[in-house]
Amino acid sequence: MSAAWVLDFGADRRAAVAQRQQVHLAHEPQTQALPFAPRAAQQLLLWNGHCVPVIDFGAWAGEAPTAKTGLLGIYAYLDQAQGTHQLGGLWLAAPPVRVEVDDALACELPSGREGWRSFSLSCFRDPRLGTLPIIDLAQVFRERHA
Amino acid sequence: MNAADFVLLRLGPWALALPRRAVRDLMPPQAVGAAVSPAAGRAAIRFQDRELPLLLLGDDLRWSDTAPAGRRICVVLESDAGAFAMLCDEFEHRIEAGQGAVALHAVPAAMRTRASPVKAVLRFGDSVAAVTDANALRSCFEPHLGFEAAPA
């Protein structure tokens, strides 16, 4: 059994990350825009000396933008190529919810979420929140040349 | 890095930081209006008895035949392919100490695009500027500057 945070992007879209990956939660932080960046990743946050990219996950996944609430989660992930830990921000539609995960809860990606396969590590079924993909933050925050 | 290495060009909501050595000259606002000659996708400006390609950018930092009214300062930039000019709203010769600590960051991977002229992020106090240079701008906006079409 291990713990995870469930992230809510609105429009019945939820995903989970490992508990240790949740670093900080901010409400209406002052973000800065960077020109010539992808539409879903035009904002960055100056935080504790870091330059943190902020992604609208809904738009990034090619779907409707994340519901705007001003909630921003900051997450840590391992950049395998560089062998370093990096930070990334995700706009959230609601505060993260903590759940317990067990191998016995593993399941397939739900129908309608097949497009998430390329950035999902696995999937599990939570008794309260339903089927939840565990997203690979290194994939979400990697360089993409769309 | 040293804050004194950069100048700031402000265009609408954006701040671009360029190496000081990229700036060849400035033209005052009163010299700009009559000198600009925009035409479908290209523009030029008279500078020291010759015509320079002129970069006209809207507030979305895309080419615009009709640049916003605030673009009244003309900066002459020196690229490897030759000089070109660019209009901006404000030109800051240096980043003042009062603007806070200065640091240079890599562009986060998720924010990179193949065509972007942004090479780094310059942080000063609570603000950021996109670091670029004359060659990167020329490459990004080449169709509007026309260096590759010019005779050798």
Structure notes:
The complex is a heterodimer of chains A (146) and B (152). With 146 residues, chain A is mainly β. Chain A contains two helices and eleven strands, in the order E-E-E-E-E-E-H-E-E-E-E-E-H. Chain A has helices spanning 57-60, 137-140; strands spanning 2-8, 14-18, 22-27, 31-33, 43-47, 50-55, 71-79, 84-92, 94-101, 120-126, 130-135. In chain A, the strands form three sheets. A six-stranded mixed sheet of chain A has the order 3-7-8-6-5-4. In chain A, strand 7 (71-79) and strand 8 (84-92) form a beta hairpin. The N and C termini of chain A lie far apart (38 Å). With 152 residues, chain B is mainly β. Chain B has three helices and eleven strands; from the N terminus they run βββαββββββββαα. Chain B has helices at residues 29-32, 134-140, 142-145, and strands spanning 6-11, 14-19, 23-27, 44-47, 50-55, 73-79, 82-88, 90-92, 102-105, 120-124, 127-131. A six-stranded mixed sheet of chain B has the order 8-1-2-11-10-9, with no helix packed on it. Chain B is globular. Chains A and B meet through strand 6 of A and strand 11 of B.
Which helices and strands appear, and what pairs or packs with what?
The complex is a heterodimer of chains A (146) and B (152).
Chain A: E1 2-8, E2 14-18, E3 22-27, E4 31-33, E5 43-47, E6 50-55, H1 57-60, E7 71-79, E8 84-92, E9 94-101, E10 120-126, E11 130-135, H2 137-140
Parallel strand pairs in A: 6-8
Antiparallel strand pairs in A: 1-2, 1-9, 3-7, 4-5, 5-6, 7-8, 10-11
Chain B: E1 6-11, E2 14-19, E3 23-27, H1 29-32, E4 44-47, E5 50-55, E6 73-79, E7 82-88, E8 90-92, E9 102-105, E10 120-124, E11 127-131, H2 134-140, H3 142-145
